[in-house]
Amino acid sequence: MRWGYRARSFSLLCSISVLLGLLALTLAGCNQQRASTASTPAPTPASDAQQVLHIALGHSIGTLDPAVQLDPESSGMLALVWPTLVALDAQQQPRPWAAQRIDISPDGLTYTFHLYKGLTWSDGTPLGAQDFAYSLNRLLDPCTDSHLGYDLYSLKDAVAFNTETCESVSGSSETLSGSINTLLNNAITVTDPQTLVVKLQQPSAYFLTALSAPACAAVPQQLIAHYGSQWTSHLATGVGFGANLFLVTAWDSKHGLTLQRNPHFWGKKPLLRELDLTFEKSDAVAYSNFLSGQSDIGYAPLAQYGQASAKKDFHAVGNLTEDYFAMNWRIAPFNDERMRQAFALALDKETLIEQVFHGTAQPTNHIVPQGVPGYNAALTGPDGTQTLKGNVVKAQQLEQSYIHDVCSGQVSQCPAVTLTVASGYPTQASLAQAAVTMWKAAFPGYPVSSATIDDGTFLDDLLGNVTAPTLQFWATFWVGDYPDPQDWLSLQFLPTSAYNSSSVNLSDANALMIRADGEPDVAQRMLDYQRAEQMLVTQVAWIPLDQEEVWWESAPYVTNYALTTTEQTPLSVWQQVYIARH
Question: What residues have CB less than 8 Å from 325, skipping those under 6 apart?
Fold first, then answer.
């Protein structure tokens, strides 16, 4: 999930089982719901007419196009409509979904997806391998202007294709789909209506987990061809449209969305007949709807967290969202490891996070958050300890050494530090303000301040100026796209990654991350990632600050509803949610 895009409200051909074993690690710690899970008899379902779930959100869903929807909460709703080849289960492991079977070549480079027969769009159009080939290619097409193409960067030639300009490919046949083009080595081919073959650049043990992202779902080529960029405006026409558990039957981008059970879904149909989403002007208004009984699921705003967390129906999990400060290793003073470590160690993260989050986030030294396979409980901070209180004495020693060697012993001659925050993100602004206060106390006289810039300019600089950066130091967050260390390490810090805006380049860590990305042995893979992460933390690739939580409440009659670390409800869980008799 790209920086800055999220709602802050809770927010042999091998068997498929071989690869799934690579990620079959138990989610621990913060992935446990706080509410009691004592065994009780299952409530009796209400009649089908009553199987309607009402949810109020404190924001709108701006688009129903999964390729450009960046808010994880909204993407979770779109996942109900648009089918993916694989989907994460309740334990966050990838399982076949629209694909009935998946074969993997011995070298790990070729994946063959065998789709269920008889799949259709709700308008009766057959849904097959060509639809997935088109949709995956569309996600990577630079003319789609998606911020999520990196979900497919393990495909052969995907990076080169996705990072082209729209002008360079517009009007040509240059795509990744082998049925159209051979220039890019047939990364995606359709061998028959139910069979899709995908080739990878190198073995990628995380590929199926990444492929489960809602952005990788099939979208209707027939509607896009007919209506162009306005295709999502026509989904609610007639009986509605979709191909997954639900259909879109009503949508007003400012007011609400209605999804109804898809009678043509190929697998186990959901127990819920309808989902009604209402878009309110704020989280507080949406939560008020829940408290008054107008909606069935409630997401308490931060100001009401304390009261909500004491309730019987309150649930919380640590989510895959991490706030952090990043600096560019090419720009002084952060081109010097001493100053990166000094600024990291001068922070008392426990106090900082309590000031800003009031108990709703956990301070951390980790880049890979808890709840992701490979989380390293033994990881230490830049000073070799696990303290979250900082080490001001060590920080001052490092700063004074830098001043002596680089600034001729005069702090006034040292490069000024400006921590930049994107506009519209009050949490980052609060973290920045509190941190600057701590740095000024630890480094008397050192020129350090914060500044706010337009969020569009902020993201353009991070994503568009990797080779010629202008941001020196910035406050941001990362929302995990999928629960795998690759999303937090290789994607962020390999020199070849478009997301390495910090210009980090550690050869030993690079070798470990590259090996881990394709390592078939799960234990060795996680060990390699852990070693790489420790190097990155020690040399301060980021200053990790905290891991956030997602929390919710549900009415007593709502059965089986739950969120996971990804802030989404898995499709297999949606199949089990129902309204009990009340």
Answer: 343, 419, 431, 432, 435, 473, 474, 475, 542, 543, 545
Is residue 72 located within the same domain as residue 205? Answer: yes
Confidence at residue 491, expressed as pLDDT on a 0 to 100 scale: 92
The 3-state DSSP composition of the chain as helix, strand, coil percent (nearest 5) reads 35, 20, 45
CA distances from 221 to 151, 194, 231 (A): 20, 16, 10
- Quote the CA–CA distance of 369 and 391 in Å, as a whole number: 22
Strands 578-579 and 417-422: unpaired
- Residues facing 274 on adjacent strands: 52, 260
- Please check whether residue 11 is in contact with residue 73, taking contact to mean a CB–CB distance below 8 angstroms: yes
* Residue bearing tokens 């006289």: 445
Mark whether 503 and 376 lie in a shared domain. Answer: yes
Cα torsion for 436, 440, 443, 447, to the nearest 10°?
A: 80
Q: Which among 118, 128, 117 has a CA at the least distance from the CA of 220?
A: 128
CATH number where 499 lies: 3.10.105.10
Q: Is residue 309 part of a domain?
A: no
209 and 329 both lie in a single domain: no
Strands 297-298, 86-88: pairing is: unpaired
- 100 and 213 share one domain: yes
DSSP string computed for 84-142: -SEEE-TTS-EEESSEEEEEE-TTS-EEEEEEPTT-B-TTS-B--HHHHHHHHHHHH-G
Calpha distance 107→226 (Å, rounded): 41
User: What is the separation, in whole angstroms, between the first and last Cα of the chain?
Assistant: 39
Sign (positive or negative) of CA dihedral 454, 456, 459, 464:
negative
Place of tokens 């648009």: 82
Q: Which amino acid appears at position 42 of this protein?
A: A
Same-domain check for residues 560 and 524: no
Total number of domains in the chain: 2
What pTM was computed for the model?
Answer: 0.79
By residue count, the chain amounts to: 582
Dist CA 363 CA 80 (whole Å): 33
The pLDDT score that the predictor gives to residue 465 is 57
Are the C-beta atoms of 527 and 536 separated by less than 8 Å? Answer: no
Quote the domain boundaries for residue 135. Answer: 16-22+65-277+555-579
pLDDT of 15 reads: 36
For residue 254, count CB atoms less than 10 angstroms from its CB and return exposed for 0-12, middle for 13-18, buried for 19 or more: exposed
Rg value, the chain, Cα: 24
Cα 206 to the center of its chain, rounded Å: 14
235-277 tens-digit pLDDT: 998 889 999 999 999 999 889 999 999 999 999 999 999 999 9
In this prediction, the residues of the chain whose per-residue pLDDT falls under 70 are 1-39, 72-73, 168-185, 464-469
Contact 492, 500 (CB under 8 A): yes
Helix (H, G, I), strand (E, B) or coil at 287: helix
